[in-house]
């Protein structure tokens, strides 16, 4: 395992696994925020304290990490180039905060990239587990196994009344963020999403774009996650989110069926126009590429397109981001140069699918 493999491989191995309802739920994620007892939190700590935290976590990992979870690779932020960190963000393996604001941070990654333990992000430790499809319970179970193992090695900052103590008050309690990434083109095309989002927010959940807070919903991909971490158990938080996701899956399926029933030829035309754009464009911006890729994935799920893998959306949504494009180019690119390379890469990738 090497940094080059994490950087150069767009699709994480866990993405190739077929989780439940994977035509709509692209991934499930559990993240646990933890801090070390008797250590200043990252918002106020010194460089020496930051290094001490990394050393403690590394020592814990080297002294008995469960073999069945696989080996963890340690990546230190101070040893990475800005472009390398950007690629890891685009793959959702580290957060933008760790990449941009934590010089003395680190990340421990599993070989299949489903486990990511961020050190010295907003909190000392953030355990992240990623699963394909709708597998929130499975992700929570794995995160709890890792959390229990680390707690055997390191004392956490914990209060009997408040629960786990975190840098941000919104994470106090369980320190849990549960989220799913959903592809919802049916609800967008039938203009239902603007009505659904406020209803979800009223339930204590939040709807964000593909890269979390402050990001756009590129390619009709939305991240649904909990906001409340205090006063509920981990299982209650996950079950609340699961209940909403089940409803969204049902509504998305109904929206797709309605589109096929009432606008079949128009929908088919939209799908194949988007395919034509991607197969022939010589220059294309991120937003247009994302929209066309979303249409193609919808066409695959509905059955209009049969000779392209459904993983094409996952792969190209990552592969055509600025960081990846520049990584493959071997250096920085101007926006226009990125648009040209994006178009070429998509053409080549789609041709590979047809030549199989």
Automatic annotation (TrEMBL):
<dbReference type="InterPro" id="IPR022415">
    <property type="entry name" value="ATP-guanido_PTrfase_AS"/>
</dbReference>
<feature type="binding site">
    <location>
        <position position="92"/>
    </location>
    <ligand>
        <name>ATP</name>
    </ligand>
</feature>
<dbReference type="Pfam" id="PF00217">
    <property type="entry name" value="ATP-gua_Ptrans"/>
</dbReference>
<dbReference type="GO" id="GO:0005524">
    <property type="term" value="F:ATP binding"/>
</dbReference>
<dbReference type="GO" id="GO:1990424">
    <property type="term" value="F:protein arginine kinase activity"/>
</dbReference>
<keyword id="KW-0021">Allosteric enzyme</keyword>
<dbReference type="InterPro" id="IPR023660">
    <property type="entry name" value="Arg_Kinase"/>
</dbReference>
<dbReference type="GO" id="GO:0005615">
    <property type="term" value="C:extracellular space"/>
</dbReference>
<dbReference type="GO" id="GO:0004111">
    <property type="term" value="F:creatine kinase activity"/>
</dbReference>
<keyword id="KW-0067">ATP-binding</keyword>
<dbReference type="InterPro" id="IPR014746">
    <property type="entry name" value="Gln_synth/guanido_kin_cat_dom"/>
</dbReference>
<keyword id="KW-0547">Nucleotide-binding</keyword>
<feature type="short sequence motif" description="RDXXRA motif of the pArg binding pocket involved in allosteric regulation">
    <location>
        <begin position="338"/>
        <end position="343"/>
    </location>
</feature>
<comment type="function">
    <text>Catalyzes the specific phosphorylation of arginine residues in a large number of proteins. Is part of the bacterial stress response system. Protein arginine phosphorylation has a physiologically important role and is involved in the regulation of many critical cellular processes, such as protein homeostasis, motility, competence, and stringent and stress responses, by regulating gene expression and protein activity.</text>
</comment>
<dbReference type="InterPro" id="IPR022414">
    <property type="entry name" value="ATP-guanido_PTrfase_cat"/>
</dbReference>
<feature type="binding site">
    <location>
        <begin position="27"/>
        <end position="31"/>
    </location>
    <ligand>
        <name>ATP</name>
    </ligand>
</feature>
<dbReference type="GO" id="GO:0046314">
    <property type="term" value="P:phosphocreatine biosynthetic process"/>
</dbReference>
<keyword id="KW-0418">Kinase</keyword>
<protein>
    <recommendedName>
        <fullName>Protein-arginine kinase</fullName>
        <ecNumber>2.7.14.1</ecNumber>
    </recommendedName>
</protein>
<keyword id="KW-0808">Transferase</keyword>
<dbReference type="InterPro" id="IPR000749">
    <property type="entry name" value="ATP-guanido_PTrfase"/>
</dbReference>
<feature type="binding site">
    <location>
        <begin position="177"/>
        <end position="181"/>
    </location>
    <ligand>
        <name>ATP</name>
    </ligand>
</feature>
<feature type="domain" description="Phosphagen kinase C-terminal">
    <location>
        <begin position="24"/>
        <end position="255"/>
    </location>
</feature>
<feature type="binding site">
    <location>
        <begin position="208"/>
        <end position="213"/>
    </location>
    <ligand>
        <name>ATP</name>
    </ligand>
</feature>
<feature type="binding site">
    <location>
        <position position="126"/>
    </location>
    <ligand>
        <name>ATP</name>
    </ligand>
</feature>
<comment type="similarity">
    <text>Belongs to the ATP:guanido phosphotransferase family.</text>
</comment>
